[in-house]
Every structure is written in structure tokens, then in C-alpha cells.
Protein: IclR family transcriptional regulator
Organism: Nitratireductor aestuarii
Amino acid sequence: MSKGLRVLEIVAKAPDGLRLTEVAEASNLTRAGARRLLLTFVAEGWMHQEGRLFLMSPKLLTVARSWLGSTPLWRHAVPILRTVSRSVGESCSAAVLQGEDVVYVARVAGSAILAESLDVGARLPAYCTSMGRVLLSELDEAELARFLGQMTLRARTPKTITAPGTLAERIAQARRDGHAIVDEELELGLRSIAVPVRSRAGRIVASINVSTRTARCTVGEMRSLFLPHLLDAAREIEEYLPLH
């Protein structure tokens, strides 16, 4: 058990991947022992192999985010989200990625009510939500292609993007911009804007958003009015994240 966890830790710290010999040397294992553990992790979905390189899969991020969603962090975050909600007059939420969905871990409702029931614990598909696209922007190109290839991309409205290539472009845009906007793809009449919450190491571990009715705010107004509040809130929440 301890040897396997050590190998997992070693590969997790190498975003560009490691060769078998490198893992064996770093873990003080024989090549045969390291190979056996690496192939087990690949078979169980914790790692994937690209040529001679072993890399972590998104499964570890999903577990880490699941753990994050159960921590007391979000009790500290609720007052921060409430400040945003009061400042902009709209709902403000936080979510983590679990499997193909975003799971709400904190929420302060505004005056506009969604058709969806969005209490803490509610799940929505990641591909058509602003927080989901921010969370998916943490994946590299190959990981994202695999992730989207496994998902059922259903059109929830006439505006929902379901083409994997177009979705990948939108997620890449979110990565470049540092925020994502989804306009009537989840529900007609609803648009939202989301930003990442990052760990001390710079990894995206959660996302927060503001959602509003299309009649209340344009996309441009969301960027000018909502985005500064969200960025400030994300920085405040990050102060509560553990150092490691």
C-alpha cells in the first residue's frame, strides 16, 4: 500500500510524465516492481500511458475535488459569496467537479429563481455550465479530448454546444481569459459567468459563479459588473485553502 501511494505521489508531481526507470529510481523500487504498480494504476484509471511516459489521469483531480467539497472551507466561503450576491443582486455559487458533473458546495440565492433546484449537493453537467468549463480548463488538450469523448453531450436548449471540438475551443478560451461565460446553454433565459478558485500550487480546485436572467444583464455587463467581484471573492476563498 505504502509503495503504491509513493509511486502515485511521484507521478502526480510530474505533470509532463515519467518513464519507468525514473519512477523506479525515485521510489527505490525495482523496475519490475515499479512497472507492476504503474500498470495497475493505468488499469484502474488513475494513470494513463503515452508511449514510455506515465501520467496522472483526471480521476485524481476528481477525487481531490470531491474531498475539497466536503471540507469546512465552504463554510468560510458562504459569507464571501453572500457579499458578491448582495453587491450584484444575483445568485452566487461554488462548485467542484465530480465525474462528468459540477456539484454545488455552496450557494447564496438571488432574486431570480432558476427552473433547476440548486441547493448544495445539486449536480449539473459540466460541459454546458460556466463553472464546469472553468473546471475543465484545468485539463490539458489530450485529457480534455478523452473526457469529452466519454461524456453524453445532450442539447439542453437550442443554444447548447454539443460538438466536442467546439466545446474544447470554448474551454480553451476560458483557460486564456481566466473566466467562462455560458449563455442560455443550460436553460433558456439564463446566463452565467464563472472564475476559478486555485490551490496554493496554482491548480484549479473549484469554481464560483454568478448567474442571472438574460433580461436583467447583457454578456458585456456581466464582464464589467460581475467579473471584478468574482475575482476578488476567489482570491478571498483561496486564503482559506490549505498550504499543501
